[in-house]
Amino acid sequence: MTERVDAIPVAAGWRETAVGLAKTAVVAGELALLVLVIWRYSIESEAFLQLSMLALGGFVVHASLPRAWRMPFFALLSVASVFLVFGVVSGLWLLTLGFGLIALSHLPIPWTGRIALIVAAAGVLVLMRVRVIAAPWSEAIWPILGSMFMFRLLIYLYDLKHEKSTFSLVRSVSYFFMLPNICFPLFPVIDYTRFNKHHYDADEHEIYQRGVHWMFRGIVQLLLYRLVYHRLTVDPAEVIGLASFVHYSLATFLLYLRVSGLFHLIVGMLLLFGFNLHETHHLYYLSSSFTDFWRRINIYWKDFMVKLFYYPIRFQLRRLSDVGSIVVSTIIVFAGTWFLHAYQWFWLRGDMLLEWHDALFWAILAGLVIVNSLYELRYPPARTLGRTAWNGWRFAATSCRTLGTFTVICLLWSLWSSDSLGQWLHMVATTGSGGVALFAAPPILLWLARWLRLREQQRPARKGAMAPKRQPWFRTSAATVAAGAAFLVVLGQPAVYEASPYYVGAVVRTALNTGLNIRDQALLDRGYYENLLAVNRQNSALRELFSRTHGDRELINETAAWHDRGDFVDGELVPGAEIQFLGHPLKVNRWGMRDQDYDLDKPDGVFRIAALGASALMGWGAAVEDIFEARFETALNADAPAGSGVRFEVLNFGTPSALGLRQVVLLEEKVVGFHPDAIFYFGQQQDPKYTLDNIAYAVFKGREIPFAFVREILERTGVENGTARDVVQQRLAPYREELIRRTYREMVAVARAHDITPVWVYLPWANEEAMSEAALTLQRYAQEAGFVVVPLDGVYDGYDQHELEVAEWDRHPNALGHRLLAETLYRQVYDRQEEIFGRMLLDRSQNAALTLKERNHE
């Protein structure tokens, strides 16, 4: 009997252990599926994929260790991640700097002395960051070092003073070098006390499951962000009228999905190692007041500011009334938020962000939060336990408050995301009377919410609050994550989404698209958070580490191969220049072309084609022998009629950023002197945008514009020399169609005047459908102007964009992309040979229809 009684707890213990192992295995399986999703959709960077695989293996080992060993193991795993991403040399530098700052925080001297030494050390680092003092380490270190210490060191020092906790090297290393941080310059401000005190303070499997649940939620938000970024964003220059302004305001706020998604991903990964942290964001799009918005969005930042500034200041102002202390404390908190955001910008980007519209955003938001706080002080919101019975009046009041708050935040976000205050004011001015209604809507909605709330209070209260139902959360969450991740993995397979209905395939291709949208491909410039998240694009060393790609400079105008002309064309390649650019030799001939050295006079028996276009035609990121123009020339000469004496020359006049009207200038000034028989203008989706940008830049610089019709439009819109570029672009936006049509007509007129056949070819980016709606519109304009149109339909069919791009952040075609362009161009030109070449080549053999690809197969 005694043996049977003793066996009961033993059996229960074995059962509990088996259940625990099963739950750990379930979480590990979910995490493995999430790693597959990260790989299939290229979430963030290659470095993050490697980190995710390290986290997967680390989680399995970590969960198997005794509880006392887990924090040291996490610290070692975090240090290993530094070497995984940064390598030995840069990793050692990063660890040395970090350990140095931690050591200064624990020197056996008074606290004020330690602060003074840390400030002095920070001053030296500032001088190194701005390159006054040369730093012996890679530029890649700065953004990550800044994200680890710029805010967390403040919390650490505060807690050392007030918490009086015993020093632990393991805890300090875990806190500052925490595993996900090595891949994310923008990182949530995690509190040191919570990081330590809430380590395994609940059931470990519940913590793990919440971690994978948040990671899945973060991935979904990042995929939604891509849909917004590629399909909904609007260039400020295109904002004309109420509808487009509302579209712009909504899209800019929705772009914040990326920050929210990344923070969910980061904190979810930390939960996998037992750190029971709370949410970073909570349904912030559904905030029902401005104080509610401040509490829901970037919760860690709010906690950081409240802990270090709000409560200490209110304590110092305790002699004042509640109203006075709230007003003063809130003003200081938001002023500090504005300054610390500029401080964050400095460590991640290398310069300070001090813009009027940035300060105005925080000032207005501070005012709204103050008014809301004082209102709640006077009329405290009703609080209930559990779920209350549904009430129509309350629901209507909450809906009005939520819609009003959302509208105001969208308007504020559009201000913050604009390039300048002037640009935003001009967008608002285009809305006319509709803008008045838009700005009047929030106060009306908030007043209506107050009225509805009063009506609810006048009605008899409904009794019976409903207690929340207990759900089997672990099983439900695990099933959701596993099914959702598996669905995304399957849907991301080319064989699946290509066979799906068109719109499904289009959405999946957009979700898979890691490149830049049209505006950012041209400008590489967006709002505050977008610029911080894109810091690896500006920091070539960090980009090389994150993407495992060549880290050369990406702007040709910063090299010796570029000459600033100081006129409307702006710049051109330097004749005779030889440099290394994006991993390939870039040699310029005596005429300023990246091509072989042709004679100025056209030889007898030669059909000469002048290729005009921008950076893709020049061969940005490609070797000279791979450029589609050179391959096209080779194909034409390989199939020239035997014995005819006909030879082809294709001259590459590709010039970065030179599209539209700049090409008209180059055509008249440079191209016609080579006596081409035909010009091939390679138009791109950015033609209208570059046309506006080039005019705006010339106006801003005070340069003469050599086109009477452009000067007439500028005079009509009231634009003068020196006007800000964004203002010029907005004022010219209504004339976008007229300008591109006139540009094409000017090009055709110049060609016809010199007996040159004008040919228009649409040149798609590596991740772009060959003939999109924008491309078809431009094709129509080209046909109307008198071009012979050569479409490149299906040029990239059957290939993934990552196989075709120079790099994940650069949509220029690589060697494979250029080969496909050459093959398709050759086929299309052969089909239109009579229009392009005339009677000269009509006797060509039908065998000339063989493409380069077909010959290679033979």
Outline the structure in words.
This protein is mainly alpha-helical and 858 residues long. It has a domain at 608-800: Rossmann fold (3-Layer(aba) Sandwich), CATH 3.40.50. Helix content is 61%, strand content 6%. It has 36 helices and eleven strands. The chain has a five-stranded parallel β-sheet, sandwiched between helices. Strands 1-2 form a two-stranded antiparallel sheet. It has a two-stranded antiparallel ribbon with strand order 3-4. The protein is globular and about 95 Å long. The N and C termini lie far apart (86 Å). 42% of the residues are buried.
Query: Number of helical segments?
Result: 36
Question: What value does the average pLDDT take?
Answer: 84
Q: Kindly, what is the distance between the CA atoms of the first and last residues, rounded to a whole number of angstroms?
A: 86 Å
Proportion of beta-strand residues: 5-15%
| Residues in helix, % | 55-70%
Largest sheet, order of strands side by side?
A: 6-5-7-8-9
Query: Structural class of the helices, strands and pairings?
Result: mainly alpha
Please give the radius of gyration in angstroms.
31 Å
Number of strands: 11
Highest CATH level, the class of the domain at 608-800:
Alpha Beta
Task: Indicate the overall shape.
Answer: globular
Residue runs with pLDDT of under 50 for 5 or more positions: 463-467, 522-526, 839-858
Biggest sheet architecture? 5 strands, parallel
**CATH-derived architecture of the domain at 608-800:** 3-Layer(aba) Sandwich
Q: If you consult CATH, what is the topology of the domain at 608-800?
A: Rossmann fold
